[in-house]
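Format notes (please read before filing issues)

Several people have asked whether sequences and structure tokens are stored in separate files. They are not. Every record keeps both together, in the order shown below: the sequence lines, then the token lines. Line labels are part of the format and must not be stripped during preprocessing.
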Amino acid sequence: MIEATISVGDAENLVLLLGAKDQHLKQIRSTIPAKISTRDGKIVVQGDDDAVIQATAVLEELRAKLRRDGSLDSDQVSQTLHQVTNGELLPQATPIGVRPGHAVHPRTPGQAEYVQAIRDHSLVFCTGPAGTGKTYLAVATAVEALRDQRIHKIVLVRPAVEAGESLGYLPGDLQAKINPYLRPLLDALRDMMDYDQVRRYMEEDVIEVVPLAYMRGRTLNNSFIILDEAQNTTVSQMKMFLTRMGEESQVVVSGDTSQMDLPPHTKSGLIDALSRLRNIEGFARITLTGADIVRHRLVQEIVRAYEEGPKKKR
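Then the structure lines:
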């Protein structure tokens, strides 16, 4: 079972979306076998993967119609249900084949849109909270591209930014010090390949997992390059990274702008790049939300609690 949460706004919009006496909600429930409830002014959808994806797609589309038209009627709800259940509104991202007999499936419309953007563009920026699959889906798509021989090398990159700890106080040599920063990328990779295969590819330099600082002065051709935790880059680091892109290469940049560990008054290279590059051809930006979180149900609650801030005592 998975869960998705949809923010609606004020109580009036919630009533308009769900209909008088929950008329629209009843239409959705009668067609899609998902548990749909409200909590703190938000809509919570629970159930198996397909049901949650479809119900979320219906509600997101109805919310967009409500914003545009200011009202909803039962005919619009019926039409939207028909479109979603027949696959007309869900982004059509095919499963990501990471090895024979094993595929990674986007589990929300937002994730499907992200995967499709990676397949359609040479440069993709994805922002969103923890648990939305930003890194995992990018790594899976890179593994698929390597398996299909569309690229010759995967390069996984992270900035080694100190988040409350000093590298100098960590035990071991330089490699031991930076390994904790690279571990999430390695974990995703090992979910998709056998351990021996990962080790062999890394020994042969087919897969490289490196700190951002090690990218300076390089040009990467025929490569799939992923920059993770990009919110912790400076403007100059982001420029340096993006200009490493060579012929027949693809770049995915992911980050969470709500979790920056940069020194005070330092502008994030991710935020800067999103503004600078928005009109460049071949560039795509995807924004994932709490509705795309597919980790434990509590992760959605945690993200929402931090977004809303501490509640005042009465």
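For reference, the curators noted about this record: Residues 162-167 have pLDDT under 50 and may be disordered. The chain has eleven helices and eleven strands.
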